[in-house]
Specification:
Two copies of one chain form a homodimer. By secondary structure, chain A is of the alpha/beta class. Chain A folds into four domains: 31-123 and 205-216, Immunoglobulins (Immunoglobulin-like); 125-199, Methane Monooxygenase Hydroxylase, Chain G, domain 1, CATH 1.20.58; 225-271 and 301-332 and 401-579, TIM Barrel (Alpha-Beta Barrel), CATH 3.20.20.80; 581-691, Golgi alpha-mannosidase II (Immunoglobulin-like), CATH 2.60.40.1180. In chain A, the strands form five sheets. In chain A, strands 19-18-17-16-13-12-11-20 form an eight-stranded parallel beta sheet. In chain A, a hairpin with a 6-residue loop joins strand 4 and strand 5. In chain A, helix 10 (382-398) runs parallel beside helix 11. The longest helix of chain A is centred in the first third of the chain and has 21 residues, at 138-158. Chain A is globular, with a radius of gyration of 31 Å. The relative contact order of chain A is 0.08. At the A-B interface, strand 1, strand 3, helix 2, helix 3 and helix 10 of A face strand 1, strand 3, helix 2, helix 3 and helix 11 of B.
Chain lengths: 692, 692
């Protein structure tokens, strides 16, 4: 079979024009009504092909389609794929799955845009071969041999090299076969079939009428652990404001915990006008540092660095030093301005002016945010504004940043994001955009379709078993997974959930373990998380008391009881088990206690013959819970007839299990979660250490 | 609100171009990046808008879409619709359903093609009004009044007639309001809101990027009862071959049973070569009439009439006489030829020739059908062939036929059907095409998408409760219902199911009642059905013994035990209850016996206050079965606190029921099915006859 090869670019006059609503008779004469194969129902195809699907480098792209034709002829189909910009298609043969569904896969090995489409045709030779095997009448078979010889001779005329001669030999054998048995034998020759697959004509081929797009992102897009930290709280002992140098000192701490991405809230000059005080106070006292999201002051805006944090050089050095630790620095991009941002003076047209001569500040009546001026994206110079905003990304890309967390993207126009992200990725396809949008579901999905690499989710507010099963079934199995990559955060500077406020240490252990194992991408806001900061500003609210958003905090990283080591263990388990490095392999399993959640992920078989991770979590932070789990051992590749080991990678405990039903008990203060590696028996039973 | 009106044709430069994968910077300047509203997820939309959805005349077309924008602005949206060919859109305002889903409906009142699309925009006035109601700060409100006045004055400049003056009055009131309370009051004025809805500008409107198509068919496409009959078996007493005149005599019989469509197998000259004898015998004796599907002989092909049936005039008279009885004659179109069809001689290029100089007959090795020559749709003159095949429809349309049952459409190219049907419907939009395809599901669905008005289904082979519930849930609720209109046949000349062979009279009563109530379109092949013909040719097969396909049959229509009256009652019930005249209102209900099936349909409330039909069917033709049904009375509009009547329209029995759970028992020999009209109590309890 032809595995790869060059074919012409799809010509839409092949099959597509006939599918329009009405074809004038004369026009029909200019298209090929003989393209009898139908290709439809292609997956992945996001919104009818309007948006690209997403994969990360090294992944398989499995494409399915309905392919069929009228009558009983035998069809062949090819998945055609290429990095965007290449002229030639690479081809992978489609395989039938039954019920007219076909499938093929290809691996994406470079970061950037790919394209794929499908072509299929009626294979006259295979149809002839299939019929020949079933023919019984001698005269019929004799005629069939002549038909077959003509097909083979036509292929010989197209063949190159020795193939042409071999084909002519086969044709001669077809023509000279005398008995039905001999005829059938020469007709079923395997070499002949291979040669015909290579040189048989693709008569009246039907191309799928769309070329579909695929975005291939770096590995981090699929598998990453984020750590969010306010640089100004990285304090020297005698200082009252942190800086990038102190951030560098913090790198070993973050690396020991096993994080891949260090995400910093905005590092730009902070506005003075209407600056907020501690706990969002409307009045400030001297020295109050303000919110980093109130961007822009006399000494600069989105392309400047807050002077107390250091210089641009200091920042660049932090980025490079972090990379030495295997950590990528992610920046926060918040497209909004403090009243003293230079843009307000330099580009007054980018803001909405009220009839009283003041700039329209952000508001959601009766709430007023006078420290923030939103851009007016409907202003006449909107394109100039778009170009400037894109140049902010360009600027930080030039400083070495590759990952951006975008603040509130749902309050900026969707068309801008699509344009901006695709423009950035055209020159920097390795860029990762994380959409910070905790808004309505369709809006979050639209942002993901438009190009955001990863998306915040509702994970923080999914606590019960039913909520978790429903939500992760959607994230994992719905068609939306083709474009929506979840990034799970148990907390953020804006979100201290009730569960964490009141659940104590078990709640913190549980939620980070869920995030780290339910999702291949997750993050925490620290050190608040590992130090289990849990006091809220207002009862019933989710704001932190003494939030770092408005003040500098001095954290005691060595405080006893820190979850630092626990989180380090989680991240090590993630790195050592491929099962935890993707989202689509998640499966929930039955367990007879609504406070216990059980799920598994299977990955590549590791050096020890293990591939499956089973997680059992006690969702109740207050009480020990126990129950019987039920695992589909066949699907997990475990021999149901023999005992096997469930090795808790968190606690080190090893449980000897047998059969699908096994008992678990989780004491939340000790460890609310089992992360179990199932170890299959590999040696003889006489060996003492018979588990690998 | 503006209910209808003229708007410009969608200009794709509005919002769509920005959605392409990559926009060169310069090009972005030519489009409007300020169109901030997103429209997506439109339903109905068949295969991404590639095929039209279907409705019948008088139906509502309910269109839904996700509509949202960035931020918190208030959106307005319009469903735009028009008969194809009209320039102006008619508009219906979209209503929000929550979760960013919107809906509007329009009625289609003429047969033919329609188009629809959507437009939405940010309504600055409504956004202003919404915010104003929530503002608390006096200074804010004062500024807001100035902003509002500017919006109203701009609308006044666009307004016509007295509206302009009224708007200016409102603007003046806005400018002169002094207190916050007075300001809010003049801002919330209802007349102002109405005027602004009519004259407020549609700033940066987003059009949905597709104009979607809709096919509106005649009422019969939605609701029809078909009767298939071989005209050659309509025999005069002394004749051995029937004719159209005798068919005319049969019309009162068919009309009394209540059928709307009389469908005749092919009426063309029957080939002599390889003619088949009774029971598909390969040899014949003189006088054997052959199969009507072996079309074409010396005296003509697809545009001729078999001489023994009468003349073309006789046929036309039959069509007209049938119409007097409210019956439409449907023809069978089978695109295949007997070896002596004139096409073979006149257009040899339309057939595939074998190297031995013979024409390739139909075959599915090892089976051979030497009496049938299929067309070779891959021949060089394929377009000429398409045109000739279309002219066959044109010819019979000219004879007054409006309904065609197409034989084996899945063995002819899909592109041809799409072209042919759309071409026919362009001049004859009232034409109905029924696809006879009992093949793989995706192929049947493709044919329906391509334009077939109705489709045969797998109903004949769905017998158990689970099979029926699963299959009709799919037909009724899947998105495919937008294009796939089922027509249910308990038997055909090719299909005598095992259930009918062995189930006796109860099986015949059950299956026709299921067909007539589960589907708005159904048909039977008679008189075999009403006379309960049940002997198969071969054990394990579905062919009728002494099938009319190969011989003339003399039926005794007055045979005692005929189901004629039972079927007449079924069809009368269908006509008297709108609930049974559509497919989408089907709901299954719980019943605690796997041999009993319960479902309901609700329609328009009739003169007696009843609207719901509940069907209970005993699927076991051999034994009486009983059980408790459970009805969702609230959904059915029945007062659960009072008794109500379940009136069996088949038997006349009236059951007094109360509450959701009620007992039923069905004795199959007497009546395997209840068709119950739920009658709500309308008069006082003191009246004797208190049920309507």
């Amino acid at each position: 079979m032809m595995e790869t090869g060059e074919t012409r670019i799809p010509d839409t006059t092949d099959a597509r024009v006939l599918d329009t609503d009405r074809i004038p008779l004369l026009e029909a004469a200019t298209v090929d009504g003989r393209a009898r194969v139908v290709i439809e129902g292609v997956k992945p195809e996001v919104d009818g092909g309007r948006f690209p699907a997403k994969r990360s480098v090294g992944e398989q792209v499995q494409v399915e389609a309905n392919i069929f034709c009228d009558g009983h002829d035998v069809i062949r189909g090819m998945l055609c794929h290429r990095p965007a910009g290449e002229a030639a298609w690479r081809e992978t043969p489609m395989q039938p799955l039954g019920n007219d569904r076909w499938r093929a896969s290809f691996e994406v090995d470079t970061i950037g845009a790919y394209e794929y489409t499908l072509v299929a045709w009626i294979d006259r030779f295979l149809t002839w071969r299939h019929d020949l095997a079933r023919r019984e009448d001698a005269q019929d078979i004799a005629v069939a041999m002549l038909v077959g010889a003509e097909l083979v001779e036509a292929a010989a005329a197209r063949a190159i090299g020795t193939a042409a001669g071999r084909l002519l030999d086969h044709a001669a054998r077809l023509r000279s076969a005398t008995t039905p048995a001999a005829s059938r034998e020469v007709g079923q020759d395997e070499e002949l079939a291979l040669l015909m697959a290579a040189y048989g004509e693709r008569h009246h081929a039907s191309w799928y009428d769309k070329v579909l797009a695929l975005t291939v992102d770096p590995k981090w897009a699929r598998f990453s652990a984020w750590y969010e930290m306010f640089p100004r709280s990285c304090l020297a002992e005698d200082a009252d404001h942190g800086n990038f140098s102190e951030c560098e000192r913090r790198l070993p701490y973050i690396a020991e915990m096993g994080f891949d991405v260090l995400y910093l809230p905005p590092i730009h000059p902070i506005g003075d006008a209407f600056r907020k005080g501690p706990n969002n106070a409307l009045t400030i006292t001297a020295g109050d540092p303000g919110s980093p999201w109130a961007i822009g002051a006399a000494d600069g805006g989105h392309k400047a660095v807050h002077a107390e944090l250091g210089s641009l050089d200091d920042f660049r050095r932090l980025v490079l030093r972090a990379r030495d630790y295997g950590i990528e620095v992610a920046m926060d991009i918040a497209f909004q301005c403090a009243p003293d941002h230079p843009y307000v003076r330099e580009h007054p047209s980018w803001f909405r002016w009220r009839p009283d001569g003041t700039v329209q500040y952000a508001e959601n009546p009766p709430k007023k945010y006078q420290d923030i001026y939103p851009f007016d994206f409907e202003n006449e110079e909107w394109l100039e504004l778009w170009l400037e905003l894109k140049s902010i990304f360009d600027f930080w890309l030039d400083q070495g940043v590759r990952i951006f967390r975008v603040d509130n993207p749902h309050t900026k126009p969707f068309p801008m994001w699509q344009w901006l992200i695709s423009e950035v990725k055209r020159t920097h396809p390795e860029t990762i955009f994380l959409a910070e949008a905790f808004t309505r579901p369709r809006i979050m999905h639209r942002l993901a379709k438009l190009g955001f690499t990863q998306s915040y989710t509702y994970f923080a507010w999914r606590n019960t078993k039913q909520e978790l099963v429903d939500y992760f079934s959607e994230l994992t199995w719905d068609d939306s997974r083709e474009y929506f990559r979840p990034n799970l955060w148990p907390n953020t500077p804006d979100i201290l959930t009730e569960f964490l406020q009141y659940g104590g240490r078990p709640a913190f252990m549980l939620r980070v373990a869920l995030a780290a194992t339910l999702g291949a991408n997750y993050g925490i806001y620290g050190p608040a998380y590992e130090l289990m900061e849990h006091e809220a500003r207002d009862a019933g609210g989710e704001e932190y008391l003494d939030s770092e958003k408005y003040q500098v905090r001095r954290w005691d990283l060595d405080r006893s009881g820190s979850l630092k080591d626990y989180i380090a263990r989680l991240n090590r388990i993630r790195k050592e088990n491929t099962a935890l490095q993707s989202d689509w392999n998640l499966r929930f399993h039955a367990i007879d206690n609504d406070m216990l959640l059980c799920y598994s992920k299977s990955g590549a078989v590791d050096a020890e013959g293990a591939s499956t991770i089973v997680v059992v979590a006690n969702l109740d932070p207050h009480n020990a819970q126990s129950g019987w789990i039920e695992l589909p051992l066949d699907d997990l590749g475990v021999d149901a007839a023999r005992p096997y080991q469930a090795h808790d990678l968190l606690s080190g405990a090893r449980f000897l299990w047998q059969g699908p039903r096994n008992f678990v008990r989780l004491e939340p203060q000790a460890s609310p979660v089992h992360i179990l590696r199932l170890r299959r028996r590999l040696r003889s039973e006489r060996d003492f250490d018979y588990f690998l």
